[in-house]
Amino acid sequence: MAKQDKVRIAVVGYGYWGSKHVRVLSTMPDVDVVVVDAHGGRLEEAVAHYPSIAGTATSLADALDTVDAVLVATPPAGHAEIALQAINAGRHVLVEKPMATSVADAEAMVLAASVHGVQLMVGHTFEYNAAVRRLRDIIRSGTLGRVLYIDSARLSLGRYQSDVNVIWDLAPHDISIASFLLDELPVAASVWGDRNVTPWREDVAYLRLDFPETRAFVHVSWLNPNKVRRTTVVGERKMAVYDDMSDNERIRIYDIGVDPASIDDPHSAHERPVSYRTGDIVSPFVPFHEPLMAQDRAFVDSIRTGVPSDTPGERGLDIVRVLAATDAALVTGRTAPVLKPTQVTPGVRAVS
After folding, report:
1. 288-302 per-residue burial string, b: 16 or more CB within 10 A, e: under 16
2. For residues 110 and 344, is the Cβ–Cβ distance under 8 A?
3. Helix (H) and strand (E) counts in the chain
4. Most buried residue among 220, 280, 321, 346 by CB atoms closer than 10 A?
């Protein structure tokens, strides 16, 4: 592709996320957008809102020969089939989270991208969030001290999904955030989940993710009166809170904590065995850059340069492995290990 040529991207699925991607991509002068959706009404809506788009189609097959890349924003159950159709045709692919609904499908996607020499990227939007990146810098600097645990909450009312439970729908964000902040992946998962509205899928869940050196706790819900998007990092020295719902203080660093007291007399152990300390609360300035814009720009840049993005298919596969462990934990009621990568042979579908 010549540097001056426009990158032509088919956005498959003009729903909640697909419409956002069309909005973002339509602002890029070096991108042409084709909207693909089986529902004619959605295509009409896309044209009405974004008259500059290059075209529409009711199926990917009708658009595949005319585009350089495909962005998959359909319900998760269809991610693998659509992505593999595009990859096998030699097209670059960005897939919304979760990248697939099984480890086998995610492995097949990564393998196919490698075989065909195309870019495969997963939409872990929060890894492109300036506040999350700033929080990782704060952790790396040692400001908080050793991380004792991470606590995340992603709650709202509604947006029930038909093909995945609340964990697969919402927790990919928090799993990827925790993993991104700690620069490592969890090795095991424990889950409590409940089905309140329908008998088929969990709509509220609590996860415990065991990392090599610490733990993360994640609360996700489709059944909560308030919209919450919050991550708390508790360190030995200080604590930090990232609140994505805040307009101007998305990160707060608390000089607050607990110091264990030295107890010489066991009979006095009940007498306040810890001491508390409090200090300043600091909110560092974090300039806002739309994460979805940064993510989609990274996809276009990876197509042009051939250099993988910060969230390649392998990253999506890692998170799918964690999600698969949550399924096992739900079934058994016990802590489930996160399966390690299996050997993948070209032409053979991987089995987890």
Report:
1. eebbbbbbbbbbbeb
2. yes
3. 9, 15
4. 220
Please, which residues bridge with residue 157 across strands? 223
The number of residues in the chain equals: 352
Q: What is the rounded distance in angstroms from the CA atom of residue 332 to the CA atom of residue 334?
A: 5
Q: What is the CA radius of gyration of the chain?
A: 22
pLDDT digits (tens, 9 = 90+) for 79-118: 999 999 999 999 999 999 999 999 999 999 999 999 999 9
Query: Strand locations in the chain, DSSP E?
Result: 7-12, 31-36, 55-57, 69-72, 92-96, 120-123, 147-157, 188-194, 204-210, 215-221, 223-235, 239-243, 251-260, 274-282, 336-337
Coil, strand or helix: which one is 327?
helix
pTM of the model: 0.91
The residue type of 192 is W
Q: Tens digit of pLDDT for each residue in 63-77?
A: 999 999 999 999 999
- Token code pair at residue 105: 């499908």
CA neighbor of 97 nearest in space, from 322, 297, 273, 252: 322
Distance of CA 208 to the CA centre of its chain: 17
Task: Please say whether the beta carbons of 223 and 351 come within 8 A.
Answer: no
CB contact at 8 A, 57 and 13:
no
